[in-house]
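Researcher: Please translate sequence to structure tokens.
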Amino acid sequence: MLIFFLVSLLASVVGAICGIGGGVIIKPVLDLLHLEPVSTISFLSVCTVLSMSCYSVGRTMLAGERRVSLATGTPLAIGAAVGGLLGSQLFAAVKAMFANPNAVGSIQAVCLALMTAGTLLYTVNKARIPTHRVESRLACAVIGLLLGCMSSFLGIGGGPINLVVLYFFFSMDTKDAAANSLYIILFSQLANLLTTLASSSVPPFRPAVLAVMVAGGIGGGIAGRALNKRMDNRAVERLFIALMAVIIGISVFNAVRYAGVL
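Model: Translation complete:
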């Protein structure tokens, strides 16, 4: 139980600081430790990320902070919610294609490694890449749809790809992107969870594990929000880059192991 709590707590602290939700850490780390089946880990990750993002976004709204841009963030979040539903269906379809659940874990790990590597390359070079200011609500919804589908399929909540999209399409700085990313994650993960419950496709899980991970998610949200206020954009970005490098390494290892090479 302690391992589940610590992983969810530390992942949620970093997730709240950087705006990546925490699932992008929880999923590959628990896959690495091989403590639960792939589908169970995805479900636990969704619940943990939802609890953390719910606290973080709720506190931001109650405090009257204006980092979340509702004009663009809401269409993005609604699109992400719909995308989350599609991502859940995609995961179920891919899972049904393979008798061995490890095959799905390998596909997820490869996709996560590639996505994270692209995110890292963009982040390191973003000062030289022109950005845009998308204002069309339809365009925002479509972008959110793709984000939600991708994050739901990978079981990571939102992840680093949210930040790249917010940097590139909306010219946000690091901390504003983090706040808006959590807002998007909240909607997509809520939709994902409701779909799982409505379709009666909840995988077997231990209630005690779910409870300690949700507690870790909320605790991480509290600590991460406090730390985010004390850190400048540069510090948040350095933490984000270091984290991406670690996630790529873990994802590659998981992909190889699930494929049966190790």
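Researcher: Any highlights?
Model: The mean pLDDT is 88.
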